[in-house]
Amino acid sequence: MIEFKDVTKTFETKQGTVHAVQDVNLKIEDGHIYGIVGYSGAGKSTLIRMLNGLETPTEGSVSIDDVEISALGGSKLREQRQHIGMIFQHFNLLWSRTVLQNIMFPLEIAGKSKAEAKKQAEHLADLVGLAGREQAYPSELSGGQKQRVGIARALANDPQILLSDEATSALDPQTTDEVLDLLLDINKKLNLTIVLITHEMHVIRKIADHVAVMESGKIVEQGPVLDVFKRPQQAVTKRFVNEEVTPSLTDTTAVVDQLLTKYPKGTIVQLTFHGDQAKLPIVSEVLKQYGNLDLNIIEGTIHQTQEGAIGTLYLQITGEQADIDGALAYLQKLRVETEVLNRE
Amino acid sequence: MNDQGLSSYFKFSNVDWGNMMTSTWETIWLTLVSMIVVAILGIALGLLLFESTGSNNPLVKLLKWVVSLFVNVFRSIPFIILIVLLLPITQKLVGTIIGPRAALPSLIISAAPFYARMVELAFHELDHGVIEAAESMGATRWQIIRKVLLPESLPALVSGITVTTISLIGYTAMAGAIGAGGLGNLAYQDGFQSNNNAITLVATVIIVIIVFIFQFIGDFAVKHIDKRA
């Protein structure tokens, strides 16, 4: 288990004291994929670097399985680092080494024999889907392949924890998904704890089970991913969730405005589904109950997260007011979150 | 009688080829020995400068100051004056001020700080993320030097030593003028002072060929080890 206790990190600069991380308390259970999301400068990078001692907290403590990383130094810290893999946004591979030699690098550092290192590296190249490319140099690989080398290298010394520092931010959307699938696969196969930082909610939704949202060095919100997606509390979290759940929110607002103008009598509602609800035929249920109503679908999205689906649907309902009220009450009964939109 | 017309350049019958060979070997020997010593000293010094970046240790600051002083001072003193200036030191170090061995101290002292600067720059140009990656794996400082800094900056180190070596060849010729042996010595004494232009021409051509060969080897090596792009 990873534990941050009252962690604060300040940097002294010419412009004054910068609080990169402030009063962070966080527990991460073994085997979880924990996402830390925030805009750049939020302090997430500083936070993740404390886990392998690349940064030390100014106050508070960081420990892994009751070993206080923030108090270690010298050879004890280096020994600990060998059990924590890390992958980077810009891959940070050695261009002078082949794929296989890059994967062997941490094994050489750990003092493994050449034969042993080679055998392990070949196995890892295979695991991350690089079989046949072992003798290539990084400059001959695509971005996705480079990150696969990065992942294989991070796994070389059988770590219990994998740190991911914006590992997919330099990749295109399709490659991002491939790399995320690989991380998910590794998490399941090796029961590895993954701590990842990102500024993309998409990454969190796709693989994380827990999420912490950071802003100005503080964790403003944390919890299971689905809970945070369902009921974002803070403004910054809402922004992240909206970006992801309704990428075209501004378009939708415009459409809603138009429809409100066009059909002043109609009622526009926004439905939000979580988990199993997303699988139910809710719209047709409503129509069966209230046959006199007309339903017009304006926009809808459904996303899969690690703990179930989450979706939104915009409907225009026209008909008798009594029927509309009845339908809304029926939706409430189905435990669908319903919001009637009005012009602001 | 020595004819000083242009045709004197081509009186190859005046050239003592045995002497020419000996001088050529002296020049190559001087170049190679000083190159090896400069490479070792330069890399060690460059590494020291790089590793002490941002250090507030007064000893380190003094070292940096001395190296930049050497780099700047030795670049501004004409090499021929430097040799004369260093004569007492040369006498102490190698026990003589005549012959190829006597040229070594001044060659090395003038080139090593310059190469150290290039080495330091080469290390600074490495992607810091790669060093951080090695740190995150638990590498020691020495492992980072041996497995990251040196191999990753090797093309820059090799092209740096190529440039340095070529200026060393020029310096050996100058050192020759005051009795260090080699092709410079030959061109000055047997060529210029004996009014034998053919010898000067042949010595020049051989020096140019040596420069070309070193440049070719350097370029070839860089091309072979550079796996970027």
Automatic annotation (TrEMBL), chain A:
It catalyses: ATP + H2O = ADP + phosphate + H(+). Keywords: Amino-acid transport, ATP-binding, Cell membrane, Membrane, Nucleotide-binding, Translocase, Transport. SMART domains: AAA (SM00382), NIL (SM00930). One of its GO terms (molecular function) is ATP binding. GO terms for biological process: amino acid transport. Gene3D superfamilies: 3.30.70.260, P-loop containing nucleotide triphosphate hydrolases (3.40.50.300). InterPro entries: AAA+_ATPase, ABC_transporter-like_ATP-bd, ABC_transporter-like_CS, ACT-like_dom_sf, MetN_ABC, MetN_ABC_transporter-like, NIL_domain, P-loop_NTPase. PROSITE patterns: ABC_TRANSPORTER_1 (PS00211), ABC_TRANSPORTER_2 (PS50893). SUPFAM superfamilies: ACT-like, P-loop containing nucleoside triphosphate hydrolases. Residues 2-241 form the ABC transporter domain. GO terms for cellular component: plasma membrane. PANTHER family: AMINO ACID IMPORT ATP-BINDING PROTEIN (PTHR43166), METHIONINE IMPORT ATP-BINDING PROTEIN METN 2 (PTHR43166:SF36). Part of the ABC transporter FtsEX involved in cellular division. Has ATPase activity. Essential for cell division and viability. Belongs to the ABC transporter superfamily. This is Methionine ABC transporter ATP-binding protein [Lactobacillus sp.].
